Amino acid sequence: MLLAGFFFIAFAWSVIDALVVGVFFIGVVALPFIVWGIYRTTHLPQALTIKERDEVVKREIEFRKTISDASVSELYSRLLSDMQRDYGPMLGCELLERRINYYLLAGKTRSEAIIKLAEERGS
């Protein structure tokens, strides 16, 4: 794009055409792409290492085991204590029941809704 801008400046029919088209290509098209390219090469996204991914997988497996081993009443108690800690005693209980009711309206049983909330919340 930068070269195209200089090409249009060099081979335009008139000076005004050269300035308009050249400034458009250089200023509006080429420079933003150049700046964006420099930014992306200096700010590379961070990915998990193999060791970190293994640890995440192990934690996920342990979490799934605790959910499968825990009874629904234990999961509900954990969820309730987490929600009450985060939102206070009254609001925490109300929010938990609202979320359970959301899954009940979707066709799940109460125990399925509690298990699903525990999986989402990580409790």
Radius of gyration: 29 Å
Per DSSP, what share of the residues sits in E-state strands of 2 or more residues? Answer: under 5%
Model regions low in confidence, pLDDT < 50 over at least 5 residues: none
Number of domains: 2
* Helix percent band: over 70%
Order of helices and strands: HHHHHH
How would a crystallographer describe the biggest sheet? none
Please count the beta strands (DSSP E, at least 2 residues each): 0
For the record, give the distance between the C-alpha atoms at the N and C termini, rounded to a whole number. Answer: 53 Å
Query: What is the averaged pLDDT score?
Result: 81
Annotation field: number of helices: 6
Structural class call reads mainly alpha
Set out the fold topology.
Layout: H1 2-10, H2 15-42, H3 50-69, H4 72-87, H5 89-105, H6 110-121
Helix pairs in contact: 1-2, 4-5, 4-6, 5-6
Can you describe this structure?
With 123 residues, the chain is an all-alpha fold. It has 2 domains: 2-42, no CATH class; 50-121, no CATH class. Helix content is 83%, strand content 0%. The chain has helices at 2-10, 15-42, 50-69, 72-87, 89-105, 110-121. Helix 4 (72-87) packs across helix 6 and helix 5 (89-105) crosses helix 6 (110-121). The longest helix has 28 residues, at 15-42.
